[in-house]
Amino acid sequence: GPEALLLWKSKSTFTSFGVFLLQMGWGDLGAFGEPSKETPNLDQMASEGMLFLDFYTANPLCSPSRAALLTGRLPVRNGFYTTNAHARNAYTPQDIVGGIPDYELLLPELLKKAGYTNKIIGKWHLGHRPQFHPLKHGFDEWFGSPNCHFGPFDNRALPNIPVYKDWEMIGRYYEDFKIDLKTGEANLTQIYLQEALDFISKQQASQQPFFLYWAIDATHAPVYASKHFLGTSQRGLYGDAVREIDDSIGKILKHLQKLGISEDTFVFFTSDNGAALISAPKQGGSNGRFLCGKQTTFEGGMREPAIAWWPGHIPAGGVSHQLGNVMDLFTTSLSLAGLQPPSDRQIDGIDLLPAILQGKLIDRPIFYYRGNEMMAVRVGLYKAHYWTWSNSWEEYGKGIDFCPGQNVSGVTTHTQEEHTNLPLLFHLGRDPGEKYPLSFVSDEYQRAMEQISAVVQQHKATMVPGEPQLNVCDKAVMNWSPPGCEKLGKCLKQPESDPKKCFWPH
Amino acid sequence: GPEALLLWKSKSTFTSFGVFLLQMGWGDLGAFGEPSKETPNLDQMASEGMLFLDFYTANPLCSPSRAALLTGRLPVRNGFYTTNAHARNAYTPQDIVGGIPDYELLLPELLKKAGYTNKIIGKWHLGHRPQFHPLKHGFDEWFGSPNCHFGPFDNRALPNIPVYKDWEMIGRYYEDFKIDLKTGEANLTQIYLQEALDFISKQQASQQPFFLYWAIDATHAPVYASKHFLGTSQRGLYGDAVREIDDSIGKILKHLQKLGISEDTFVFFTSDNGAALISAPKQGGSNGRFLCGKQTTFEGGMREPAIAWWPGHIPAGGVSHQLGNVMDLFTTSLSLAGLQPPSDRQIDGIDLLPAILQGKLIDRPIFYYRGNEMMAVRVGLYKAHYWTWSNSWEEYGKGIDFCPGQNVSGVTTHTQEEHTNLPLLFHLGRDPGEKYPLSFVSDEYQRAMEQISAVVQQHKATMVPGEPQLNVCDKAVMNWSPPGCEKLGKCLKQPESDPKKCFWPH
Lengths: 506, 506
Fold this sequence. Notes:
The structure is a homodimer of 506-residue chains.
Chain A: E1 15-20, H1 40-48, E2 50-52, E3 55-56, H2 62-71, H3 75-78, H4 107-112, E4 117-122, E5 141-144, E6 162-165, E7 168-172, H5 188-205, E8 210-215, H6 237-258, E9 265-270, H7 299-302, E10 303-304, E11 307-309, E12 318-320, E13 324-325, H8 328-336, H9 353-358, E14 366-370, E15 373-379, E16 382-385, E17 387-388, H10 393-397, E18 417-418, E19 424-427, H11 443-461, E20 472-473, H12 485-488, E21 500-501
Parallel strand pairs in A: 1-8, 1-9, 2-12, 3-13, 4-5, 4-8
Antiparallel strand pairs in A: 2-11, 3-10, 5-6, 6-7, 9-11, 14-15, 15-16, 16-19, 17-18, 20-21
Helix pairs in contact in A: 1-6, 5-6
């Protein structure tokens, strides 16, 4: 689902607003070449703003990516990783014990000091136990759920996911918030849209600066769209969902314009991970010509669509090759609010404003992690793979394929292959699809790896991992009795505690 | 190399101008999602004109595609195919005996009757023996060569390709027209650009309507660019060549505007076949997310970038889902000139003006041929493969791969697989990459195939193949002594005639 982020002071200051489309891939937007070109609003947003062509998420999976965005730090630093097995992706399912540590400073906590009202609409995904509640981490308002909208569950083995309004739950998915898995109909995106419009109106009316993080759960599987959009896309249900999101974003931007605050509003659109090709084409999107998808550290897993929009400030129709990362939205938003990032910890995000407003190119690497293993690094146009892995032969034999139709020998490997002595090197300009590794004996390889090795050495030498939050699972911590369940008669019986190592297969 | 096409009457009429980028793929344009977005002029042409998202060539190889464009007829009708072996691609190498038959009526022949001056700049590729000369088939002027700029040759086993100005050769590639294979430097595109600008100026000055077919040979391998563009692209030499073509097209459009005839000028940009992935990434482009490339009847071989531009007539920023084909440029150009297509033969091209000017969608199928075998057909969003083949195991074993990194089991087959009883069916909206065949037992399959079968039956029942032109090869017919060679001292010794069946491996 998309997330959004917004920051505004009346006069001379800003609204920052980011949309993070869960699992919507680079290739899903018309502006990025989707062959049916069904995203007129996002395409217009791009033509009025700046398109980032080399923008990344911090992790090929949702929870760590969102934790990175809100902390400005790599998941391996903020604890959103597992050490249960080597190079594994992990997230926050219902039985996860961990969540965002109190030590971490989230963007809304910092913005609060500058007078911002902070709202999250949609999927939090940074832990659902009471201490992890978004209103304990800087948000003032919340409409949405702590986890993915998987279901329907039976409320015995698994509770249905609660939907919160601020501190308390107001219902559960599939019960009070319908999702028809047969027809694909659900009006959740419309609800999230209305929440955004109302919040923006309220803030504008009271002249209160705000930060809106619009983090809806579409287009995550199970995919849904509201009735008005069902059957309207060439691309089937997934395309219907994309069209509805596109339409919603258009309405939000028009709302800002109508209220006369668009020139004080910084809006950023991106995604938390690449399209889930394993669910494609019916429940998953497209990563264009990039290799593989969600769960992998190939470009399809981590290169994201990204658009910055701020009329009157960002030159219309701009295109940036700045290497960007969702973590930069932390630092950039602080900069817009006139704040400094915390100095007592390593911050990985950089301030993108010089790239956005002055067209500068800031030299910085991109790191690609699975768990606490640095799988790959990008420096300039070169990307070196220190480890390759898609998923295990065992999973693959069961039909789980993160790279359908995209086998590249020796690259999309089904065993974890170490290349730390002689990394696989790609030139992403000539070969964005990571299909043609450079020859190890070429001068180009030698020159590029010299530079990259220095970057990696420095990164590893100064790396201090946080305490891993995604190691322990326990059925007792599921969403049995969220706050507010009593009023609704929706409290469920919690089983005995039985903490175990979570199982992360890939 | 690009081809171009132009048609103009002073006042109230038109210039028609098409650019066909040889081997430039769907994914090579920024407007179609190329990740380094280096085609600002083509992207602007698209934003001022109409983007065709479902536009096809008539064949996945250059000669037949160009013959189809100029005749409005499928290669199987106009003779640009071979029957030497089953389902083989064929073109016009130097030893080809055949060429465009006199019976065929070419677009410039017809336009002549309406007073147009017709010029071809670039690669003719419809046969190089005297009877096939473009000035014998309706063109008034020619600057370019009859074949690809392969070389350098030794002028003994193989002559270097001649470059013609109108009736006579004026030199040969690699001799008088330099191409430095080491640095990739050649100023040929600049020469073709200047030819276009000069021709347009001359026609405008004399108020003579014109048809310009700009058919340059870049971006065919060996790839080249002029000094100014070398090293300027993120994509390497191939990208340098694309940037130069993009720049040239921008200059041509600006020239039309400067001369005040842009509103009387219909311009169409497209490509003669998909990017040659076998040459990628250093000498070949990208087909975006489409499957495979040149030589194949998958989408990557035949779906082409396409832009129509005609300021004041075509609504800016339009997007069309009309199924289009290069053959339509024949019929559309005639329509622009107020002419009817010949009624004594089957014409496959349709008039696209209702789609371009009124946004109509005309129902029509797309046929995908290799040789005289109909490999596949598209009806609406469905594409049925009656035969699948990429290339032989024997070739594949030698490293010849038309689908690098894109193996789709049972689809990109290395044996010719017949599916005529139960075609492989894809939904190109949900699955533009042809990775997920529909289940044979689904209702959707049954419904779609009923419709498709009727279309195929009618097509086959009325098909009258022309005499195949690409069966016989003979070293004696090579470009040994083109007209004008005497003046230049460039006549070469012709060997004894020894006609043989041409060998078409794929």
